[in-house]
Amino acid sequence: MFIVSNVIGCIFWGAVLAIAIAALVFYLCRFLWGSSATSAGILIPVIVMTLFVGAQTTLIIGALYAKGYISDICDSANSIIGSTADYAGDATASVRSTIRSIRNNFPMLGPLLDDVDIDRATRYVEGGGHSVVDFIAGNLHDTVNYYILRRVMWTLGFVLITLTGIFLLNGKKRRPAVRHESEFDDFSNYNNFNDII
């Protein structure tokens, strides 16, 4: 039930964020092209963009949820494995044993644990006396941060593609430049007051 509520939350907040981005793009386009641009020429590309951006923002929210759970998983892993594992002997064997234990207790982390560099983890543990779990937590944070960065870049790409498409559809119909004229007419052409009225 906990996972289902997180998935629903990711979808909901991802949709809210996508709609907010779409509204900003729509109003930016309406500001740039004004009422001279067709509503369909702006609305249709923005709706299509919202679908793609919605997928990316949902994934971003999901990654933020996952990032929040990394410390919980590390605390659980430390309590299961013991944060004071003996690394005085063969550190590489201890690192492999710790990773195997984490994989057995948290099978969902299996694909991420496959990417752990055993030599780097061993140097990390030997060099600073930190636990393997801390090293894995740092790797997971880096992986999630990079994932979020890629999703943000895809989102920006979709926005730029949409703005380019709208420009190509409505580029020739730009809003006329604002003219700064005097608030009063030039009355020098009139001979007397009756001609004005």
Q: Could you explain the architecture of this structure?
A:
The chain has 197 residues and is mostly helical. It is built from 7 helices and no strands. It is elongated.
Poorly predicted tracts of residues: none
Assign a percent range to the helix content. over 70%
- Tell me the overall shape: elongated
Count of DSSP-assigned helices: 7
**Gyration radius, rounded:** 29 Å
How big a fraction of the residues is strand?
under 5%
Which H/E pattern describes the elements?
Answer: HHHHHHH
Alpha carbon gap, first and last residue: 78 Å
Mean pLDDT: 79
Secondary-structure-derived class: mainly alpha
Main sheet? none
Question: What is this structure, in a nutshell?
Answer:
Helices cover 75% and strands 0% of the residues. The protein is built from seven helices and no strands. Helix 1 (2-33) packs antiparallel against helix 2 (39-81) and helix 2 (39-81) packs antiparallel against helix 6 (132-170).
Keywords for this structure?
mainly alpha, 75% helix, 197 residues
Strands, helices and their partners?
Layout: H1 2-33, H2 39-81, H3 91-105, H4 110-113, H5 118-128, H6 132-170, H7 193-196
Helix pairs in contact: 1-2, 2-6, 3-5
